[in-house]
Structures
1.
Amino acid sequence: MKWTPGVKYGRLGDDEKCETESRLSNLQKRRRCLILAKTLCTICFAAALGMFGIYVAGYGSPDCGTTDNDPTNNLNNTFAPQCTPITDNQRIDCWPESGGVSEHKCVQRGCCWKIAEQSSPGLSGVPWCYYPTNFQGYTVVNVQTQPNGMKVQLQTTQPSWWPNEVQQVTLDIEYDTANRLHFKFYDPNNARYEVPLNLNKTTQHASVNEYMVEVPSSGQFYIKVTRRSTGKILFSTQDAAPLVFTDQYLQLGTQLSTKYIYGLGEHRSAFLQSTEWTKMAFWSRDQPPSLDTNLYGVHPFYLNIEDDHKSHGVFLLNSNAMEVELQPAPSLTYRTTGGVLDFYVFTGPTPDEVIQQYTALIGRPFMPPYWALGFHLCRWGFNGGSSGMKEVINRMRAANMPYDVQWNDIDYMRDHLDWTLDRNHFNDLPDIVADLHNHGQHYMMIVDPGISNTQPSGSYPPYDDGITKDVFIKKPDGSGPIIGKVWPGNTAFPDFFHPNAEQYWTQHAQTYHNIVPYDGIWIDMNEPSNFYAGSVDGCPDNTIENPPWLPPVLTGYTLRDKTLCATAKQHLSTHYNLHSLYGHSEAIATKSALDTILGNKRSLVISRSTYPGTGVHSGHWMGDNNAQWIDTYYSVTGMLNFNLFGIPMVGSDICGFNGNTNTELCTRWMQLGAFYPFMRNHNTIGNKDQDPAVFDATTQNIMRDALNLRYTLLPYLYTMFYRSHVDGTPIIRPLFYQYPSSTNNVVYSVDVQFMWGKSLLITPTTSQGTTQGQGYLPTDRWYDWFDHSYIDSPGHLINFSLPMEHINLKIRGDSIIPLQEPAVTTTLARKNKFMLLAALSSTGTASGELYWDDGESRDSISGGKYNLISFKVSQGTLTSVIQIGGYTSESMLLGEVQLLGVNTSPTTIVVNGRTLPSADYTYSNKVLTVKNLSENLLQKLTVTWK
Ligand SMILES: *[C@@H]1O[C@H](CO)[C@@H](O)[C@H](O)[C@H]1NC(C)=O
Ligand SMILES: *[C@@H]1O[C@H](CO)[C@@H](O)[C@H](O)[C@H]1NC(C)=O
Ligand SMILES: *[C@@H]1O[C@H](CO)[C@@H](O)[C@H](O)[C@H]1NC(C)=O
Ligand SMILES: *[C@@H]1O[C@H](CO)[C@@H](O)[C@H](O)[C@H]1NC(C)=O
C-alpha cells in the first residue's frame, strides 16, 4: 500500500520523512526557493543539502537570486490575452534551463511571465515563465496520405531561441499494427543519430486500427491520437509543450489521459508517478538508489490509465540525455539533447496487453535456466578469501537452507583485473565451483567493463588483445583509448558496438571459463562508471560536452560526471549519443559470449545498467541499496517498474548492501525477497555477515520457511517466466492490472502490495515492529496461503495480519497453482512430485497451467521440447489438457491435489477412474486434500469429488 505518514502500517521513521521531503526535485527546491523570500532560501537549500547527504557534493549553489529586480523590466505581459487564459496547472515551462530566468528574458522569448499564485497546493514547481496560447512553433506545409500512414512536412514559423534550429522537419506516421502506432520527427535534409536498437519492426497492417490520428492540413502543427472505440486521447500535443527541433534541444509535450502514470525509469519513487511538476532526468549513472536523480538505467516508457480504466503505453526511442516533466494538467513534456523524436503508442487496452505490445517491439524477456529461480547468495569481501567463502557455503548446507547459486564480487580477481583469478586468496576457487556443481548448485561472478591499461606489456591479454582488435572507446580526437579509472586503477573501456567486440569479449570470457567454469555473469559498473570526470585527461570544452541545455542530471548538470567524456568516440557515434546504451550493449555481448561458451545451456546475465530491450539478454538488480526499511518498499516499486520495462528477472539486494542489517529487517527482507523474481542476498565489504545461516536458530527457521515457500512455488514462477518469454506478460504486477475497474481508485496507488501473476497477492511488511497493517483486498475471493480460510472481499481496505513467522500471502479464488515439494537445491526439488493447489471461486471454478522442460536447454521452446499442461476445475471435477507434450525424458508425477473452498464433505473421490480409499484424502475447513497420488501428468488427469 501507499505510504501514509502517521499510519501505523507504513509508518514513516525520521529517515523516511526526510526521504519523502526530498521527493521535491532539485528544480522544485529551487523554485520553492524563488517563491520564498531570499533569506528563507538559504534555509531551504541548507535543508536540501542535509537530505542529500554526501551526494550533494558538487551540486553548486541554488539559483536563489534570479527573481528580477532589473528596473529595465518594462515588458510586463502578465495580463496579455495570450497569457491570462492559462491556469497555473496548465502552464508549460518556457524556461527549462536550471536558472537565470527573469521577466525581461522570459518576455523576450515571446513567453508569459507571471509569479505563480499560491492557489496550487503547497510550494509547487509552477513555472513563472510559460508558453503563451499563440506560440506558433512549426506549421504544416504538406500532408501526404500513404497506404498505412502519413508523411507530414513542417516548417518553423516562430523560431525557438535554441541554436541550430532545424527549419524543415518531417513527421512520418506509420500505422504499424492495429494496436501500435509509430511516428517519428526527423530532419529530412541531414541524417541525425538514431538509437541502434534491434527492434522487431514487424508490421501487421489492419483494416481498422484502435487509434485514430489527426494532423491539421495547414497552420499551426499538432498531432492528436485518440482511441477509436472511445474517443479518449492517447497522445496529443494540443495544450502541451510545442515541438522544438534544434540540434541539441528537442522538445515535445502531450496531454495525459489521467494523472495515473507509471514507468519512466530508472528512478526511485512510488510506482504511481506524481504529476505535480515532477522532473525526471535520464542519463545512465552509477548512483546508489536515491530519490529524484538519474540512476543506472534509462527507460523512456510509460503506462497511462484513461478515465474509463483502459490503458495505453508510450515509448520515446531516444538515448540522449533527456528529461521528462510531469505537469498537473495532467500533461507530460519531453526534452532531449539529441537524436530524433521517435514515438510508439500502444493501445492495450489492459496494462498486460500494453506490456505485451511493448515487448513485441523491444523484444521479449529471455527464458532463464531453472536454477536461476533458486536462492542466490553473494557478498563482497569474504573474510580470508576463499576460506571465508567455503565457510559460508558449508554453514548454508549445514543449516539445510534452500540455496542454488553462490556468487563472487570483485574480491576474487587479482588486483581487480577482469578475467583473472587472485591465486593468493582464491586459489581453490576452481575446486569450490566444482564442489558447487557436484551439489547441483551453480556459480556466478562479477565482471566490470574497465580493462586495466597499466599492466606490463604482454602480461595482460585482455588489454593487449583489445588494442590489437581496436575495440576500446577512443579519445575525443580519436587517438587511442580514452582512459578512465575504475577498481583496477586506470582502464580502457571496450566499445561493445565495435564489430570486433563480441568476439573479443567471448574469447576472454572463454579463457577465464577454462579456469573457473562459471554459469552466468554479473555485469556491474556499466553506466559506464568512471572514478574520473570524463577521463584521466579531462574532456574538451565544446557544445557536445557542454550543451546549451541539460536535464537535471547528477552531479551539477554535467554529462561527464562519474563517466566518460561525452565527446569520446565509439564505433557507431559519440558517447554523447550512445552513453545510456553502454550497459545494454555489454549485456548483449555478455549473453552472446555465454551462449558460445555454454553451447545449448541457458545462462544468467544480471546487469546494473539497462535500456529498452535489455530484458531479452539480461536481468537486473536494483543496485547498491541500503540496509534500511525504506529500501524494502522501494524494492517493490522497482520490481513493478522493471516488469513494465520488459525486464521481469529483477530483485534488490536482500537484507541490504550498504550498512549493517539487523535480524528483524533481514528476516522480513528474506520473506519479501522470496517473491523477487531474482532472489539474491548480497552485502558490501566490511559489513557483518547476513546469509541466512549466520542467524540464531529461530531466525533461521523463519528464513528457511521463506525459502521453502519460494521453492514450493517455483513451478508456478517458471510457468510465469515462460509466459513472459512468449507473450511478454509481466510477472510482478500491481493490483490494478487485475482489477483495473475497481470503483475505488485506491488500487491505482497501491504499491507495497503486489501480485505474482494473476493468482497470488503478496502483502509484505516494510516497517519495523509491524505485525498488523492495512492493505487493499480487491473484489474477489481470497484464500490465506497458510490457514486456507477465505474472504469474499467487496474490495476495500482491511487489516492484514503480518506475523513475524511468515509473509502475508493470499490466493485468488479461481486459481490453480502448480507446486513442487521443495528441496535444498532446484536440482533436487525438480525430482520431487508435483502438487496442484486449486483455490475455487465462489462458483466452484478454477484454472491454471504448468510449463515444464529440462530447465536448462536453450532450444527447449524453439525445439518443442517442453510440456504445457492446462488445468481446470468445474462442477466438482479437475481435468487437465496436455497442450504440448514435447518433453518426455523426465517423469512428471502428481503427488497431491489440494482443493480450497469445497463446500461439502465429499464421499467419493475418483482419480483417473480409480476410487480412492478414504485414507488417501482428508476434508476439513472446506479443504479437500487428496494425497498419496502418483499420477503421470503427461496423461490426461481427471479428479472428481462428490
Ligand atoms: C503588471 O501589470 C499589471 C496590470 O497593469 C499590474 O497590476 C502589475 O503590478 C504589473 N506587474 C509588475 C511586476 O509590474
Ligand atoms: C514481432 O512483432 C509482431 C508484430 O507486432 C508480433 O506479432 C511478434 O510476436 C513479434 N515477435 C516477437 C519475437 O516478439
Ligand atoms: C484495524 O486496525 C486498527 C489498529 O491497528 C484498528 O483501529 C481498526 O479498528 C482495525 N479495523 C478493523 C476493521 O478491524
Ligand atoms: C497409497 O496408494 C497405494 C496405491 O496407489 C496403496 O497401495 C497404498 O495403500 C496407499 N497408501 C496409503 C497410506 O493410503
2.
Amino acid sequence: MTKSMNKRTQMVHGGTRRSQYNEVSEAIFLTQGFVYDTAEQAEARFLKTGEDEFIYARYGNPTVAMFEERIALLEGAEDAFATASGMAAINGALCSALKAGDHVVAARALFGSCLYILQDILGRYGVEVTLIDGTDLDQWRDAVRPDTKLCFFETISNPTLEVIDVKAVSEIAHAVGALVMVDNVFATPVYSRALELGADVVIYSATKHIDGQGRTLGGVILGTREFIRGTVEPYMKHTGGSMSPFTAWVMLKGLETIDLRVRAQVDTAEKIADAVQGHAGLNRAIYPGHASHPQFDLVQDQIGTGGTVLALDIKGGQAAAFQFLNALTVALISNNLGDAKSIATHPATTTHQRLPEEQKRALGITPGLIRFSVGLEHADDLINDILHALSRVKE
Ligand SMILES: *Cc1c(COP(=O)(O)O)cnc(C)c1O
C-alpha cells in the first residue's frame, strides 16, 4: 500500500492481510491461539515473533494487526497498539511510560475517567501530577520542571471545547525532555496533525468516530515503533487490555468510511453552529470551527475544523436544559459521541456528575450546558430539531 496515496484510499485498503482464500473483506480471526508445527518452532516464536507471526490474542492477532496498521496510516504514525477501550489506551500509555517519582503536567479540562487516573491512581503509585489551565501557555511554562516526564492533554476538551496549542505545549515540554501525550478524540483521526505539530503519542477512544456507529468499545495508542513496541506493548500484553479480534474487525470497517462520515458530520456541525449563533434562548453556542470561538485562529491553524461536537449553554439552567433535551425528536439523549446518530448529553448531571460544583464551574460545565454530537442525519432535520426544542424551553 503506497503511503503517497490519499488517506481515504489507504483507509479502504491499508493493512489488509489476506488468508490463503484471498477473501475481499478482511477476515475476523476469532482465535485466541496459534498452532506451531514443532516444539522448536514454538520455542523460537516465544523468543522472537517475526512479521505475521502470532502467539496469543492478548499479545496480538491478525485482525487486530490489520487495524493497527490501518489506523497508523491514517495518523501518519510509525506504529499503533489497539486496546479494549479508550480508557485502556489512556491507562496503558500513562502507566507504561511512568514510574514512581516522575512528575506529570496535565490540562485540567479532561474526560472524567482521565482525571481519575491522573488524580487518584497515579498518585497511589508515587507519580506527582500538576493540573493546570491548558489553554494558558504561561501555566505550562511555570508547571514543567526538570523531572517532568510527561505532559498530557485533550487537544479539544470535553465538553466545553477549549483548544490547546499542541505546537507551543510540545516546545515547552520538549525543552525539559518531557513526552507529549494527547487524547485526540475531539480533533478526530481524520483531521489530526498532532504528530506533525510535535506530540509524541496520540490516543483515541475508537468507540467514537473510528467505530462511528455505536457498536463496540475500543481504543488505540499511536507513536514511534520504539515507544509502541518497547514501552506500551510489554505493559499491555501482560496486563490484559488488548483489543478483541471481533472489535478490531468492526473498527477496520469503520476506518473504510471514517473519512466520508467525519467530513459529513463536520459539515453539518458548521451549519448548526451558524444556525444557532446568537439565538435568544442561548447564553452561548460553542463550536471551535465558528469565528465566534475565542481560539478560532488556533483551530484553523492546527486542526482546520471545529470537529463534530457543539456545546450549547441554554438560558434558564438545568430545568431549561432538561426541557430542551426532552423536546428533541431526532437527536437521542445519550452519552456517546462521534456516532452516526446525533446524541445530546447534559454533562453536569451525567458524564461530569461526580465533579464537585467548584470544579464544574472552573471547567465551564454550567447547569444549562448541553453537549451535542452531530451524527449523519440531514443538516436541515437536525437544525429544525434543535430550533424546535429551543422554542419549547419555557421562560
Ligand atoms: C470517550 C472518551 C474516552 C474514553 O473512551 P472509552 O472508549 O469510553 O473507554 C477518553 N477520552 C475522551 C476524550 C473520550 O471522548
